[in-house]
Design brief:
The structure is a single chain. The chain is of the alpha/beta class and 372 residues long. The protein has 16 helices and 17 strands. The chain has helices at residues 32-46, 69-82, 102-110, 125-130, 137-150, 168-181, 198-204, 213-229, 248-254, 281-286, 299-310, 319-326, 330-333, 335-343, 358-362, 364-369; strands spanning 4-10, 12-13, 25-26, 53-61, 84-95, 115-121, 155-161, 185-190, 233-236, 239-241, 259-262, 267-270, 273-276, 292-296, 317-318, 347-349, 353-356. The chain has a nine-stranded mixed sheet, sandwiched between helices. Strand 4, helix 2 (69-82) and strand 5 (84-95) form a beta-alpha-beta unit. Helix 6 runs parallel beside helix 8. The longest helix is centred in the middle third of the chain and has 17 residues, at 213-229. The structure holds S-adenosylmethionine and iron/sulfur cluster. S-adenosylmethionine binds at residues 19-20, 22, 61-63, 94, 96, 119, 121, 158, 160, 189, 191-192, 194. Iron/sulfur cluster binds next to loops.
């Protein structure tokens, strides 16, 4: 029986960043107690008939680090009481700079959390302000140093490129600062200008200019160059890790392993069925057990999705793993798509693997589109 992952969504934030369209609410922290109560009910109810071992837990948001740390302990205890959590499970929490004290981080550690993901985005205060972050670079440094002092060794730092008014030099400066700190993992996301966000309005009004496609590409290759030079393996389109520190949680998602998602707007994938919870906080607080069954995935869609997810990783698709999982050879099954992508120099195929070329890394969206 396969191991599964658990995702817990904490939908509270101090305030909404201008670019963000994740389900997260500012000014609702007074609901945290009630929310955690409902979350624990959901965690317990869903555990019936689930015998799998849990090898990763990811507490994301929103800003999970702003709720009282005793609630984080309660949530993790509840998971352990109701599921078979492996002793060496990877347990991550997302932390926003400036929202934690040494005591809070200490409590996270005592609760069994062994990985932190800190959202920095940029080391430049003017950019942080422009995108509506609640912190400056110094807040990040304090949080990072406190985390190290408390004993967290496995830390990820999130950065963003393609931000309004961001220059290539800004990106280089951020990278230079970060590699000095030597976190085990760095995620770098290209800004997605989401509909109905403040940032979209600002850009439409001409208040900010976004870097053009060429500049954004240069930023991406600069990220790759600097991080690789400093001992990070580029193992997924947006992710870089020191040896032994790839994110297991993300890796499992790209390998199409099952996971259960708890909390408002959380989704789950179990027995090839996708479920999603309501994205309305009030509705969730009324009844946290209500699920929308989105789709029972057809076998054909499962195979396509496996290709799409696997081609996010730089190691690509292991042909024999595919054969073992689905009893078919992906080279025949997808020969039309693969022929086209190889001709366009977006994919390369060797004896064991199908993977992105460097042009494919640049234009990964075009590759994934073939398997939608
Ligand atoms: C959902 S956020 C949660 C983490 C935490 N709340 C924070 O903001 O630091 C996870 C990461 O997604 C990235 N992200 C959020 N919105 C994005 C967008 N519109 N485009 C690109 N990346 C985005 C940011 O790098 C962020 O750190
Ligand atoms: S802190 Fe994170 S989740 Fe909250 S609004 Fe900002 S980007 Fe979104």
């Amino acid at each position: 029986m396969e191991n599964i992952g658990i995702y817990v969504h904490i939908p509270f934030c101090v305030r909404k960043c201008y670019y963000c369209d994740f389900i997260s609410y500012p000014n609702k922290l007074e609901k945290q107690k009630e929310y955690v109560q409902k979350l624990k009910q959901e965690i317990e109810q869903r555990s019936k008939n689930i015998k799998n071992y849990v090898d990763t837990i990811y507490i994301g948001g929103g800003t999970p680090s702003i709720i009282n740390s005793e609630y984080i302990t309660e949530i993790l205890n509840c998971i352990r009481e109701n599921y078979k959590v492996k002793k060496n499970a990877e347990i991550t929490i997302e932390v926003n700079p400036g929202t934690v004290t040494e005591e809070k981080l200490q409590e996270f550690k005592s609760a069994g959390i062994n990985r932190l993901s800190i959202g920095l985005q940029s080391t430049k205060d003017r950019l942080l302000e422009e995108i509506g972050r609640i912190h400056n670079y110094e807040d990040f440094l304090n949080t990072y140093k406190t985390a190290k002092k408390v004993g967290f060794r496995n830390i990820n730092v999130d950065l963003m490129i393609g931000l309004p008014e961001q220059s290539l030099q800004d990106v280089e400066d951020s990278l230079e600062e970060i590699v000095k700190l030597n976190p085990k993992h760095v995620s770098v996301y290209s800004l997605i200008l989401e509909e109905n966000t403040k940032l979209e309005v600002f850009v439409k009004l001409g208040k900010f200019d976004l870097p053009d496609e060429e500049l954004e590409r240069q930023m991406y290759w600069k990220v790759k160059e600097v991080l690789e030079q400093n001992g990070y393996e580029h193992y997924e389109i947006s992710n870089f890790a020191k040896k032994g520190y790839k994110s297991k949680h993300n890796y499992n998602c790209w390998k199409q392993h099952s996971y259960l998602g708890f909390g408002v707007a959380a989704s789950s994938y179990y027995n090839n069925i996708r479920y999603s919870n309501t994205d309305n906080l009030e509705e969730y607080l009324k009844d946290s057990s209500k699920k929308n069954i989105e789709e029972k995935q057809s076998l054909e869609d499962t195979k396509k999705e496996y290709m799409m997810l696997g081609l996010r990783t730089l190691e690509g698709i292991d042909i024999s793993e595919f054969k073992q999982k689905f009893g078919e050879n992906p080279l025949y099954l997808f020969r039309k798509e693969l022929d086209k992508l190889v001709k366009e120099n977006l994919l390369e195929i060797d004896l064991n693997n199908i993977k992105l070329t460097s042009k494919g890394v640049d234009l990964a969206n075009l590759v994934w589109e073939e398997f939608v």
